[in-house]
Specification:
The structure holds two protein chains of two kinds.
Chain A (H helix, E strand, L loop, with lengths): L18 H7 L4 H10 L2 E3 L7 H21 L9 H10 L4 H29 L7 H23 L4 H14 L6 H9 L6 H33 L22 E3 H26 L32 H9 L2 H21 L4 H20 L2 H17 L1 H4 L12 H22 L4 H19 L1 H4 L18
Antiparallel strand pairs in A: 1-2
Helix pairs in contact in A: 3-5, 3-10, 4-5, 5-6, 5-10, 6-7, 6-9, 6-14, 7-8, 11-14, 11-16, 11-17, 12-13, 16-17
Chain B lengths: L2 H27 L5 H7 L2 E4 L8 E6 L2 E7 L2 H10 L30 E5 L10 E3 L15 E3 L6 E2 L20 E5 L2 E4 L5
Antiparallel strand pairs in B: 1-9, 2-3, 3-4, 5-6, 6-7, 8-9
Classes of the chains: A mainly alpha, B alpha+beta.
């Protein structure tokens, strides 16, 4: 248990090494970086299953970059040649099929891992003070990843690539005033064409990956500044030994590098199984329609994005005139409640009334398609505010009321249900379920200031709960 | 800091921001449709003089099939029959806005010539011609002639107006066009 402590070690002795290591250290802080981020980066000793996904995400990023480099050696970003060059990679390039399937399976694996990684954050309150910036960098990484996946999906120039891009770019034309010009600017032509393919290629292989790598660096630097959270949500830095190291922490290297290697081998087993036995995953990782070359004159009967976008796509599809009216009712109720709490501050009340009147006018007049885009974007943007929405006195779900955990599980299931209906063909039942799930999604996040304060939390122990094997 | 220096610092900083923003302009504008794309997507002249009555031709414009149908008086009179059967007889819906000069029963400038984009407003398939009136497979027995979308069975009359309770939410899109003379249409430009 937590009480089993080793005697504190004495203060470290600074030693000069000599040799190559010292030669490098005099010119580049290799040892200092190694110590700061690995050998003397103290991580909580009770990190569990959920903590594999951070390091796995880095591995998958590396897999995607390496396999991507080799794909670019054979791929041709030209509307007349793109589809053929992908088939060429699949059939004629030595091991081309393997590299391409690694890249396509890696894309789906990346999202599985990131969704698990984000769920971990929600479970243990990892986004809360002092880790707000870790969370925000993470949300930016998620945005970049979505952009990267979207741009990349056009490149095979299949039917789903083409029509998916057409539908998504056309969404921007729903924005009042600037919309049509904006979507024209994004495409660089009146339809998704060679110009669009070329720029999406540039974004996919250069712009977004650079941004992604930079953000991952920022995410890790911010994390190492504040230290990792843990399943107990306790700050291990609050309890340090004589050397100034957390008593409940163990050096990342070698303890967690070895621990993560185990997670990595488990992951690679599953990854290889998918890669070799079900690379298209029954049409979910690589859609059937995408094995037909893009044809601007013939739409596939059912356009659906790849599975990782479908929860958001569902919210988009569920935003019709009817559900915009529901939103208006909900927002009016929220504004009335706000007005009641501001009743003694006239100026703010006026601002609220004017703002709300404008919003209701806009919602009544602007096309529902635009609000669909707003809802879809809002679903991602809302995540950024999480550190300030959560008012629970305790970080980890372990010490929060049981029903808080139930709500979180409901939120996760809600996301999966949205995803399911985003893949399915439109139906009235699916529509109403998607509408309800959209409200649950936003309700869970934006009602947090209210519901996270309710209920009694358990007492948080001073030291980590740790059961040695 | 010395106030004189601070002023210069602010001034040079502001000037740098302006120049930086100005430098971004060429890069942003480079992403606009190129002269080539604009030329290919610009208005095109379409010769309709050779169309015989009840003949339809398709022109590819901006990657979309645009139909030109020369309607016979019988075809035009069928629009009176379908008037009460179509979802939006005068094209008032705004999801795919119809230009004001085509918000009429025949949905065109001159009733004789129908000009529409041949892409179904449901999911973008291209409907097929079913001009012969009367009962026939997959169409109602009082069929007056029109278009049928093969993908999900949306039916349109001879003014490309969608019938009620079809998967397609709207009438087919009327592209911008104007007459140069009686035999020629400029496709892609509005002015009447």
């Amino acid at each position: 248990m937590a009480e089993q402590t080793l005697p504190d070690a004495g203060a470290p002795v600074a030693a000069t090494r000599g040799g190559l290591r010292q030669w490098i250290d005099d010119r580049f802080p290799f040892s200092a970086l190694w110590a700061a981020h690995l050998s003397e980066y103290y991580a909580p000793k009770n990190l569990n299953f959920w903590y594999y996904f951070g390091s796995l995400a880095i591995v998958v990023l590396a897999i995607q970059i390496v396999s991507g480099i080799f794909l670019v050696m054979h791929y041709k970003p030209d509307a007349a040649l793109a589809f053929g060059s992908v088939e060429y990679i699949m059939r004629d390039v030595s091991w081309g099929w393997l590299i391409r399937y690694i890249h396509s399976t890696g894309a789906s694996a990346f999202f599985v891992i990131i969704y698990m990684h984000m769920f971990r954050g929600l479970l243990y309150g990892s986004y809360r003070k002092p880790r707000e910036l870790v969370w925000i960098f993470g949300c930016l990484i998620f945005l970049c990843l979505m952009a990267e996946a979207f741009f990349g999906y056009l490149l095979p120039w299949g039917q789903m690539s083409f029509w998916g891009a057409q539908v998504i770019v056309n969404l921007f034309s729903a924005i009042p005033f600037i919309g049509p010009d904006l979507s024209l600017w994004i495409r660089g032509d009146y339809v998704v064409s060679d110009a669009t393919l070329n720029r999406f290629f540039a974004f996919h292989v250069i712009a977004i990956p650079l941004l992604l790598i930079g953000l991952v660096g920022a995410h890790i630097i911010a994390l190492h500044q504040v230290g990792s959270n843990n399943p107990d949500g306790i700050e291990i830095k609050a309890n340090k030994d004589a050397r100034g190291n957390p008593r409940d922490g163990i050096p990342f290297h070698p303890y967690f590098t070895v621990h993560d290697l185990f997670g990595l081998s488990a992951f690679l087993t599953i990854f290889s199984a998918v890669l070799f036995f079900a690379p298209t995953f029954g049409g979910y990782f690589l859609e059937h329609n995408n094995f037909i070359p893009a044809d601007p004159l013939k739409t596939p009967p059912h356009i659906a994005p790849v599975w990782y976008f479908t929860p958001f796509y569902s919210m988009l599809r569920a935003t019709t005139t009817t559900s915009v009216h529901l939103w208006m009712a909900v927002l009016t109720a929220a504004a009335l409640w706000g007005a009641w709490s501001l009743r003694r501050r006239i100026e703010r009340l006026v601002v609220l009334a004017v703002g709300m009147a404008f919003l209701l006018w806009a919602m009544a007049t602007v096309d529902a398609k635009f609000w669909g885009v707003v809802v879809m974007g809002g679903a991602v943007v809302s995540l950024f505010f999480l550190p300030w929405l959560d008012h629970a006195p305790v970080k980890s779900m372990r010490y929060r009321p049981k029903w808080h955990l139930s709500l979180l599980i409901l939120f996760a299931l809600d996301f999966i249900v949205l995803g399911y209906f985003g893949i399915s063909e439109p139906s009235p039942v699916g529509y109403w379920i998607s509408v309800s799930c959209t409200f649950i999604y936003f309700g869970f996040l934006w009602l947090m200031p209210w519901w996270t304060g309710l209920g009694t939390c358990k007492a948080v122990p001073e030291r980590l709960v740790y059961h040695p094997h | 800091m010395d106030s004189q220096r601070r002023i210069w610092l602010i001034a040079t900083g502001a000037a740098t921001c302006v120049v930086g923003a100005a430098t971004a302009v060429p890069f942003i504008e480079s992403m606009e449709p190129s002269a080539k794309a604009r030329a290919e997507g610009g208005p095109i002249e379409v010769d309709i003089g050779h169309l015989r009555p009840a003949e339809k031709m398709t022109v590819l414009w901006r990657g979309q099939p645009v139909w030109f149908l020369r309607r016979t008086p019988q075809m035009l009179s069928s629009l009176n029959v379908t008037q009460s059967l179509v979802a939006d007889p005068l094209s008032h819906r705004t999801a795919f806005p119809t230009p004001a000069w085509a918000q009429n029963q025949w949905r065109s400038i001159k009733p004789e010539y129908l000009v529409v984009v041949g892409i179904c407003t449901h999911l973008g398939c291209s409907p097929v011609d079913r001009f012969t009136p009367g009962p026939q497979p997959s169409l109602p027995s009082d069929w007056q002639g029109g278009f049928l979308c093969p993908c999900h069975g949306s039916e349109f009359d001879l003014a490309a107006r969608v019938f009620k309770n079809m998967p397609a939410p709207d009438n087919l899109v009327v592209p911008p066009y104007r007459y140069i003379n009686d035999r020629k249409i400029l496709l892609g430009e509005y002015k009447a």
